[in-house]
Every structure is written in C-alpha cells, then in structure tokens.
Amino acid sequence: MNALDLSLHRSGISRASHGFVRRAIDVVLAAAAAIIFAPLMLVIALALLLEGGRPIFFAQTRVGAGGRPFRMYKFRKFDVRCDSHGFALTMAGDDRMTTIGRILAATKFDELPQLWNVLKGEMAIIGPRPESLVFADCFHGGFEDILQYKPGLLGPAQVVYRNEAHCYPQSGDPLLFYREVLFPAKAKLDLSYYPQRTIISDIVWMVRGFLAVVGRASSPPQTSIQEQG
Which positions, given as ranges, span the membrane (predicted)? Predict the structure, then answer.
C-alpha cells in the first residue's frame, strides 16, 4: 500500500535518512522515557479501561520518511463508539473526546505510545509531524521535500502549533482550512529548519518541546492565522 503517488518526486525523497548519531540519541532517549513514564502510561491505560473499556490504543496509518506508510500509536482520546475512520481533525471542544481524552489532549500524554514508533525506527524524537493519509495529497509544490526527513514527536511545527485545535475559524470547512492554511504554514516552518539542522539545534528543540508540553511556549497568533483563510 502506497501512501501517495511519489512517481514525480522519487529522486527528491529517496535520500530520506536520519543519521547514526541521531538514531542513537533517539534510541537512548526513547528507552529512558519509556522507563520513566511507564508508571504514568500504566495509570493512563487503567483509566481508559475503566472509563470506556477497550481499545486503549488508537492506531492510524501515517505518511513516513520517503512517503512510506507506517502505523502510529496513541492513547485513545475518543469514545469507543466513535468511528476510527471518522473526521480527520481534532477540534477544540471536540465532543468525541472522553473526560480522560480531554486530559490527554491538554497534556499531550496521548502521544507517549509513539515512543514505541521511535524505538522501531519509524519515527524520531525530532522531526516533522507525520500526516494521516487523508492529507497525503498536500505533499506537492515543494512540500514533498519534507518526506526526506523521518517524522518526529517534537519539532518546530509541533511547538509553534502546540494548540492547533484552537486555530480553526468558527465558520468554514476545517479540512479546507487545514489544507490551504495550516499545512502550508507548518510545512514552511519545517522546511526552514530541517535542511540546516544540527545535533545541538535538535537538542534545543527537545527542550522547547518539553516547555511547550508544560505550557511554557507561545502559540501562533490565532488572528493572523485565521486571516490567511
């Protein structure tokens, strides 16, 4: 199964690589984080089980490095009765979220299972956020260059758009807004960083990512974003 038609861009994204040093850092940090957060993940799993039952995890196919699809894991935020192939975006005040799900969305703890994706080599600690197949068509006009880089848990776009769910205008089509405004904004941010990245700058973004999770990083001005729509 192919995530998208790469025939026109094969030469541009075939260089997808991550580097031995970055991979070593990813493995060490992901393993350490998995051990440190194991008790918290167990509590989250039990809370989800008691609140709504199985499944505890949400798995979705995402576009990875080189355009190759992979299964990305999260803790489930939505009610178990929700269609797993439903609306592709999570909005502010999304009524599909459970009580535990809202806590996970606010803290980003729903992303912790992706440590497994990092250990498997499908994701990195720092990298562009992997898109779902619904938005695979957005990788054109130069944005396909993002696929040269392994997707990550943290990075410039994840930090700046930490509260992405609040960026959508109250009227209009959210899917169209994402394709025409948010995706290009995030893609340009990523493409301005990753071609010049260094190990040190990646470490800086790890720190900034942690600060964003605890609410110490600023979000983009919502007014200016909405005006672009």
Answer: 27-50
Task: Please write down the HEC assignment for all residues of 68-131.
Answer: CEEEEEEECCECCCCCCCCCCCCCCCCCCECHHHHHHHHHCHHHCCHHHHHHHCCCEEECCCCC
- Identify the segments of the chain with pLDDT beneath 70: 1-17, 83-86, 215-229
Nearest residue to 65 via CA among 21, 142, 12, 13: 13
Taking residue 181's Cβ as centre, other Cβ atoms within 10 Å add up to 19
Tens-place pLDDT, residues 158-194: 999 888 888 888 888 899 999 999 999 999 999 999 9
For 201-209, which contacts have Cβ atoms below 8 Å and span 24 or more sequence positions?
202/22, 202/25, 202/125, 202/126, 205/126, 205/154, 205/155, 205/156, 205/159, 206/29, 206/125, 206/126, 206/154, 208/154, 208/159, 209/126, 209/153, 209/154, 209/155, 209/158, 209/159
